[in-house]
Amino acid sequence: MLDIRKLRLLRELAHRETIAAVADALAYTPSAVSQQLTALEREAGVPLLERTGRRVTLTPAARMLVEHAETILAVLEQAAAELATTRAELTGTLRIGAFPTAVRTILSPALVALSRDHPGLELMVTELDPATAPAALRAETLDVALVQEYDYVPVEPDPALDTEPLLEEIIYLAALTAEPLAAHRADSWIAGTPDTLCHTMTVRACQAVGFTPRIRHHADDFGTVLALVAAGQGVALVPELGALPCPPQVTLTPLATRRRTRLAYRRGTGNHPAVRAARSALVAATAQR
Question: 4-84 belongs to which CATH class?
Fold first, then answer.
């Protein structure tokens, strides 16, 4: 019989690619992860990992096993969710992850509603980059999270997660003058930290009109971004939630580009009473913003 805990480690290795990253995410030591995966190979009776120096890659058999692991883990989550529906009162911990502007505009009113309607529920909020949310959901450090994609930065579906649409936003060009995007090819730019979705979106949106932006400043807080634009330090792309309040000297020019936010949770947990309550509260807060 294959051990579900070892299968979970193999699933995480498929996503995170290194044993060290799996160990860090799941609070193991690297040697413990290696030992568990070696034991899983013995249970499976076929090679699962190809080792080259310190690097490991999954064999075709391992990738097939990961697909089964996704289904097995989702069924276990669904069983736990159905058990939770038999309880008379909604209690326990609900861990929600969201990006900064959503914490302020959407999550805060949703938390008020959840606290009022379900006083026995312990709410825990983590502010994080949406790109890291899927990994946190898989690692079970979050139960519900807000994830994003931009027109120029599509996100591959994660087989471990279910998602549903929550919000679509306009992307604005923030500058001191109202000009089209292509007119700013020679200007300095302000963008998010490299490897974030916002940074990638800025680069690709500019490349789509024929130039690569010369990024002078990096800032992840859109209030800071707008302050830098107002100070004449460059231009930037800012989504709708991050554009308010806007300094009076900054002009916001709407672009055709959109940012889409989705609710995400582990497969099988969608009907867990706590997750269902969070989904309802976040949808209602988004509609009322």
Answer: mainly alpha
Please measure the distance between the N-terminal and C-terminal CA atoms of the chain and give it in whole angstroms: 51
Fold (CATH) for 92-161+261-288: D-Maltodextrin-Binding Protein; domain 2 (3.40.190)
> What is the rounded CA–CA span in Å between residue 2 and residue 42?
10
- Cα–Cα nearest to 71, from 149, 141, 2, 136: 2
Superfamily assignment of 169-258 in CATH?
A: Periplasmic binding protein-like II (3.40.190.10)
Q: Which two three-digit tokens encode residue 257?
A: 């580009």
The angle at the Cα of 236, spanning 235 to 239, to the nearest 5 degrees, equals 150
Span 74-107, pLDDT tens digits: 998 999 898 888 887 888 899 999 998 999 899 9
pTM of the model: 0.84
- Across all residues in the chain, what is the average pLDDT? 91
Strand partners, 238: 172
- CB distance 219 to 192 below 8 Å: yes
Residue 157 is classified by DSSP as P
Pairing of strands 144-150, 92-98: parallel
Cα separation, 117 vs 112, whole angstroms: 9
Q: In a 3-state reduction of DSSP, which class is residue 139?
A: coil
Percent of the chain at pLDDT exceeding 90? 59
What are 145's two structure tokens? 């999270």
Quick one: pLDDT at residue 85? Answer: 86
Task: Burial-class residue 228 by CB neighbours within 10 Å (0-12, 13-18, 19+).
Answer: buried
Residue pair 207/156 in contact by the 8 Å Cβ criterion: no
Cα 218 to Cα 221: distance, rounded to the nearest angstrom = 9
Helix (H, G, I), strand (E, B) or coil at 27: coil
Element (H, E) at 31: helix 30-44
